[in-house]
Amino acid sequence: MDLDKYFKLKLKIFAGDVFGGINSAIITLPQALAFGVATGFGAGAGIWGAIILCFVAGMLGPKVPLISGTTGPVAIVVASAMIAMNNNMQAAVTVLFTAAVFQIIASLTNIPQMVKYIPYPVISGFMNGVGIIIIILQLNPLMGHKALSSTVETVLTLHQSILSLNHSALFIGIVTLIIVFFVPKKINKYIPSQIVALIFCTWLSVKMGLNLDRISEVSVSFPALIKPYCDFSHIIEYLPYALTIAIVFSAESMLTGLVSDSLTKTRHNPKHLLAAQGIGNIFCSITGSLGGSAATMRTVAALNAGATTKIAAFINPFLLLILLFKFSGFVAQIPLAVLAAILIKIGYDIIDVKLLKVLKYAPKDDLYVLFTVFFLTVFYNLIFAVGAGITLAALLYAKRVADKADIIHKPLSNYDADIMEYEKILENDYHHKIRVVHISGQFFFGSATQLISKFEDMLGTKYLILNYEADDLLDISAIFALEDIILRLKAQEVEMLLVIKNEDVLKQLKEHNILNQIGENYTFFEEMPAIEYAKEQLKNSF
């Protein structure tokens, strides 16, 4: 590569990172303000937390462009802790500091590797629950009232809130909802609807002279240092809250890391990611700023805008600083009803619509787990919900295995042995342009993520024959994992041929639209016809 091409490539990469940082910052601003208010920390703490965490975690974290800050699940658990501690800021700082220390300790263990074993229905039930919690808790601010501390209390007093609503707040909130939900995708791609709603509705409320609760004051000076409680009794008292927040901080960050890996076709070190997030959250806590995690929505926005390196994680907080110092007067005028409407949209976006579309086809065991986690999340306790969901999923899986314990598997026949030998010869003769992969044993949530990792790099392969030999139906995790495998292979320009011997499994894949993604011509009942088809296609391509 000559020098001119080298500099052009570097300039292209830098431009992508700049646009990625700007795009993610535009999304971050309204969310950071809204989450700051919703947690009780204040709008200023929300925006400063996004600046500090994104910069520190970006500087110390993996090379991939991860944008950090407070997210929906984080905001919910932090708000719950604040209420339990009677809005004692020093106590809150102690909890967030301890949670950050837990993150750093966890990064020194194998705990970060465990997140990939969480069943999909548990994650979906949790995220759906968090989305509903955010929506319910913002109903009162949308109507001009103070936000209540629990979903149950909000629902029980909803009738009373409607009777005494602030019509101006509801009007400006509905206008905000119309903008965030109905701005065309073409416009939303370049200018996020949340920032459009924030600017327009704030301007409209000021022009109309509406009597509304507003942010009122956002500090533009650097936050003052706050010392956490250092005595043993306070630390023990707040330990459960710190542990809960640490788990949500860490899980959200690692899930964002997995999404980033999927989009960038790279692999980050989860321990490295967790340590960087922990250190970032320590700086957030001692400055009284709102801690957080790697944020999926903002990271995806940065990646979609062309970001490829961690420079995007520096551009994001730099732009937020400029916005904070230059437009603090405008920020102070933002109505709380506008922020409530933006949070309702965020809550809606968190809801797992992908799973809802295929709910009627989902196995009953997955539904039991999903709804258990969902209802416990909304009406009881987030962390207990996740623990209960994992336990229930494990018990139901154990039951399925026990129910099949009397089945005797046939020994490998000579025909099967011949096929396996033929596969080795085939791969060598065709220089791995044709590969055969067998999924033997049940394809469920525990094996799904392991299998995905085997498809990370298929360089040189043109046709991959995936042979699912078991008779067991797939769970939701496995179905979505299979969909992910298809997308990864397509990105690498690899054609997949699927060998399914069980009619029920075939029907299940058809119901979930997997066969349409592969193509009817690429589905076989036996392996040999699939091999012959791949050989013929490869021969015709030359």
Protein model, in words:
About 2% of the residues have low confidence. The protein folds into two domains: 350 residues, no CATH class; 128 residues, 2-Layer Sandwich (Transcription Regulator spoIIAA). It has 542 residues and is mostly helical. Helix 3 runs antiparallel to helix 12. The strands form two sheets. A four-stranded parallel beta sheet has the order 3-4-5-6, sandwiched between helices. A two-stranded antiparallel ribbon has the order 1-2. The chain is 67% helix and 4% strand.
**Which strand order do you get reading across the main beta sheet?**
3-4-5-6
Helix and strand content put the structural class at: mainly alpha
Q: Count of DSSP helices? A: 26
First-to-last CA distance: 30 Å
Question: In brief, what are we looking at here?
Answer:
With 542 residues, the protein is mainly α. The chain has 26 helices and 6 strands.
Write the layout of secondary structure elements.
Layout: H1 3-39, H2 43-60, E1 68-69, H3 72-84, H4 89-107, H5 120-137, H6 139-142, H7 151-156, H8 158-163, H9 167-182, H10 185-190, H11 193-207, H12 232-264, H13 270-286, E2 293-294, H14 296-304, H15 312-326, H16 328-332, H17 336-350, H18 353-357, H19 364-379, H20 382-403, H21 414-429, E3 434-439, H22 445-453, E4 463-468, H23 476-491, E5 495-500, H24 503-511, H25 514-518, E6 523-524, H26 527-541
Parallel strand pairs: 3-4, 4-5, 5-6
Antiparallel strand pairs: 1-2
Helix pairs in contact: 1-2, 1-3, 1-14, 1-15, 1-17, 2-13, 2-15, 3-12, 4-12, 4-13, 5-17, 5-19, 5-20, 9-11, 9-17, 12-13, 12-14, 19-20, 22-23
